[in-house]
Design a protein that fits this description.
Blueprint lengths: L15 H18 L1 H62 L2 H9 L3 H14 L5 E6 L4 E6 L2 E2 L4 H4 L4 H14 L4 E8 L2 E9 L15 E8 L2 H11 L5 E3 L7 E6 L5 E7 L5 H47 L11 H10 L8 E11 L1 H8 L1 H19 L4 E6 L2 E7 L3 H15 L4 E3 L2 E3 L2 E11 L4 H17 L5 E3 L2 H22 L4 E9 L4 E10 L10 H11 L2 H16 L6 E5 L2 H4 L4 H12 L6 E5 L1 H6 L1 H13 L3 E7 L6 H6 L4 E4 L1 H4 L6 H16 L3 E5 L4 H9 L4 E3 L9 H9 L2 H4 L2
Parallel strand pairs: 15-16, 18-19, 19-20, 20-21, 21-22, 22-23, 23-24
Antiparallel strand pairs: 1-2, 1-6, 2-3, 4-5, 5-6, 7-9, 8-9, 10-12, 10-15, 11-12, 13-14, 17-18, 17-24
Helix pairs in contact: 1-8, 2-7, 2-8, 10-11, 14-15, 16-18
Amino acid sequence: MPDAADHKKAPAQPGRGSGIRRHLQAVANNPLRSFIFWVALPSVAVYAGVCALVFLVMHMMSDEMNAIDADRGHKSIAAAIESVVVGLGESVADEATWTEAYINTYIQPNPAWLDGTWGATARISDTYDTAILTDKDGKIVFGESSKGAVTGTLVDNYPSAAPLLAELDATVGKLGDDATVQHLTRNNDGVVAIAGAVVHGNTGQASVPREERRVLWLSKRLDDKLLREVALRFQLPMPKLVEQVAPGEDSMPLLAADGSEVARIAWLPRRPGDPAFAHSAGVASVVMLIIGVLIAAVLAAFRSSIKSRAQADERDWQNARYDLVTGLPNGFGFVESLKASLPKRRATAPLAVALVGVDGFLDVVDSYGREAGDRLLETLADLIEAEIGGKALFARTGPAELALAHAGADGPTIIRGLAARLLTFANQAVLVDHLQLKVGFSIGVADAEIERAGVSELVRKAETALARARETGGRQLVDYDPAIEDERRQRLELQADIRRGLDADEFDLEYQPIIDFGTKSIVGVEALMRWTRRLGGPMSAAIFIPAAERSGLIDDLGMFALRRAVEEIGPIEDLKVSVNVSGMQLRNPGLAAATMAILDEWGMKASRLQLEVTESFLVAQPQRAKRIIEELREHGILIALDDFGTGYSSIGYLRQFDFDRVKLDRSLVADIDKDAVQSALVESTMVYAFAMGLGVTAEGVERKEEASTLARLGCREFQGYFFARPMNLAALTRLLGDQQDLLAV
């Protein structure tokens, strides 16, 4: 690999320098030539117009201030009047909700008590000046006011009280005896606030039957004196009751319960806009004079601002087309440059595009930070530029994606040759500051004879090929093929089908028993996902689970399996359940909390749940894996290393991570009775696991001889077709009820 310090920068990108020069020339010439016509003269015209319009604007602002203050005055006075009515409602609620009142009204009716309590208050209190006790229909049982006794009916004394009675009756039907009503109305004395509530006890008495109901009504006259007190309390304009509104006054109606107007109040608005206009007019005159003096200075300074704007336009133009980290064209600049390299007219030309995905870039960012990732890309850009030697347009089109392109008949040959060299180039470590970082490249290539309008489509095809390269393991080159599109469409359809299946609850679990070979008893089960009730027919887990992992649906699918397994196995005492979790689920920082929430919901002990993890996530992100495993084990959840003996599996993993159990893969178990080397390997693995306090489970046991050999080597737990196939919950329940067949194994 060439050293970044030992080479010069590659030649400028094709078309890049000429485009910048043309753009800068346009920015530099036009503003200076047009300064007088487009800046100086319009500035003088604007100044004259502003001087003419400023007083009109201030006048409009003062009118708007007056309008806002008038609206605020309306709302404030309305709120103040409402506070009087609501306060009366709170008073009647306090007076009516009283066990002593309940006794003297219903149990032992006592007119003297009524007069001494409510009547006396009405005669001397400022809270209310009339107290009336009626039956449900408004017939007065007791009434007293500051002017004497009140008799007849409520409607006789308050002509618009009928809606109040109906409203109270309806409100009590909804809310019970604690309901109250309060409104404005009129009587012979003028405008009054009135409130009513059912008399009832406050120490657990039963609800009062409607026919026996007694209603306490309190009212207070709303006169100019009361309005002045309210205005002073809330610092409002001074309202008064009027028959006719005088010129210059604001007013508002006072409404009864039925919406009819019972009176009108008026007040003089404050009109704060008038003095504000007078003051601002003087200030504006001074400001206009100062502005006139400053116009010349502003025009002089504007010439300098034109130059600054040209520089800003240059930066914006470049930032829109070039990556800030590497200095390479970005996605927009890449496509723009490709279009510029093709004929302008409707003619075609050969073009080849390669998109290079930097595998492992996100892991570098996660491990060392964004700055290290930027330095890595900057170093890679320098090294790749030197490697391609100016033979192709080079760009950064994504966070972890680079691009190469070449127009011409030799484009496909050049691009594929450069891509092959990059794959070899990626095998070497990259020195970034003090770090030795190793990344890989996944490359997608597409070429075609196209017009300018087809550039974006060709880039999209290269992206499709790149996605295929990554999906199939990465670190390889994939040429675009229409079949990839078909496969992707089928994959998207399958992903949509999985989502639909989850929503339609089509997935089920089967359970394969885990056998203790010594006691011949079932000590646990492994939950296995099944999609037999699929709308389009059954589908193997070997198909839909990888599709779910690629689409991100594995998290939802995995949580469904976990919840269903806990729900179904939880009630079976002492039986443990193992559930597989994917690498994507382990990347979820909320996995432990979500798992514990499910266990708490179904009341299952954490020690009965075992999560099985595979080595792929341990290899890719060992530090994150260690953290999530430790967090799960802190909650008491058991962790098993699944499929031990495949891929990168080694005894070193058993020491690096805190597992509770190791599950030997079928590849280690098959024909172990016939292979002495394999038997010795398994025996040494079990000795090491037992020494670390780990349990061992042998998976895929299909023959008695295999089970016997494994048992002789020290293995106690078995899982496989020799003992039991996966089965639904009903079959498992029957097997647990009669384990005689296991005793015969």
